[in-house]
Structures
1.
Amino acid sequence: MKEITIAELGENMVTAISKEWMLVTAGSVESWNTMTASWGGIGFLWNRPVAFVFVRPERYTHGFVECCERFTLSFLGDAHRDILNFCGSHSGRDCDKAAATGLRPLATPDGCVMFEQARLTLQCRKLYRSEMQAAEFLDPKCLERWYGPGEGQSLHTVYVAEIEHIYTR
Ligand SMILES: Cc1cc2nc3c(=O)[nH]c(=O)nc-3n(C[C@H](O)[C@H](O)[C@H](O)COP(=O)(O)O)c2cc1C
């Protein structure tokens, strides 16, 4: 793995997040959990490069992200679609995701978890969290579509986090 700067991250991260998907991972190599996410973004806030992610409270990963100061975003590429499918449809409460998928965790220098399979990893430090509120939706269609009775799930917790380190292969 080599480290690059945000200026060297010359790819379309909207495409990477929405089409390739990413793993949101928190914890230490001794105890961690990961889940697939395709909602989120990369931007610039409070004069820092930031990532923002949206995690529903019922995810097992939510507790890890809540407790940890940092999390990572891992991009595995299309060759590992099977891992992303598994981690997006099974909970770490019920299975061992590393054993089931072959994901190989590695510690970053700060003790966060990244994966040998990742082509790109962003290590992020949480700056802000907020629970989405139904009353704040300006377009009710978004609320109905993604949080309506059919969905049966809670509103997301939003995390904004500083991108501290970027590792590539
Ligand atoms: C393509 C895809 C994208 C997803 N994006 C998100 C997301 O952005 N936020 C979220 O809370 N869940 C998202 N999920 C659902 C979680 O990945 C899924 O519920 C997972 O099993 C949670 O695992 P956990 O309970 O071990 O945390 C996504 C699932 C898939 C397949």
2.
Amino acid sequence: MSKVFALSLFCLCSIAALSDIRADTRPDSHAPIGVMGDHVHKKDEWMLSFRTMTMSMQGNLQGTISLSPEEIVQTQVNGFAGMPMQPANLRVVPTKMTMQMQMLGAMYAPTDRVTLMAMTSYKNIEMDHITFMGGMGTQRLGTFTTKTSGLGDTQVAALIKLGGDTGVSWHGTLGLSLPTADIEETDTILTPMNMRPTVRLPYPMQLGSGSFDLISGLTYSNHGADHRAKLGWGSQWRSVWRVEENSENYRLGDEHQLSSWVSYIVAPSVSLSGRLTYMYKGNVRGKDGQIMAPVQTADPNRHKRQRVDVGVGANWILPNENYRLGLEFAVPIWQRLSGPQMETDWGLSLGLQWSPSA
Ligand SMILES: [Cu+2]
């Protein structure tokens, strides 16, 4: 109870002192928590962070049009048709997918110009499916769920300050994604012939890219060039380039993301944010010879996707100023999928950052 009292007192005092906020202790000096590598640090500052992200997908789209499982098996051609034992149309339809990712990150600035960051992750992925009986028709045979979990890929990057002044900053990002995740995950499936083999799972169920990937980006942020300004904004471009083929003879699609946000300080230690994000992800190039099934997720040509998300979030600097909490919830307002593919319903990011020198 005394903590709640102390907290309330702190909030009141802070509100009284609103005009004295320093630029680097403004809650909006960090972007919404879903933005990666959004800020740089001053020489010898370091920071540790823990984030958890949940993404939920349900139902299927072809382009921008929703398709039911029955429509999919009646109209969508199996990418492996013509090969032994492969039906003409898709026969297994994913209906729901949940991905949870725990991320552990560290940042350190050896100089005022360069901030180094490293981040690794742990993933839990789950996908529900319906299997239709035999080679054609719309009779449902049953359902099954596949699950994978383990270490994800690890990113290392340098954030290079390009310019800026009090409260205004430009920085470039140059990084590498290291293939620390397993891409040979297996689980038991239900086939249209009513068998339950254990097979290598399709691309979205694998835990990483299997390749060394390049990361590039550019970030602009403006938070409090005028100390009394309550409004802040920023923008970030970020791409992941799959520059090499992995050990299983494929590369995941490149990813490009353009994100812009505005923030508003509602209390000295709390800012609220709104964000608009455009995302592009390409098809799988090449293919894993062990991934073959009459299901959309196994088809290298059914992974290209574009999406626009709207996000709302909050940043909160905890009373001792060394800790920050961030929360962001995002829903797509538009998505176009080279499908059928599962459509994204929502994403939630939560993060805790700790910096002894904040
Ligand atoms: Cu940081």
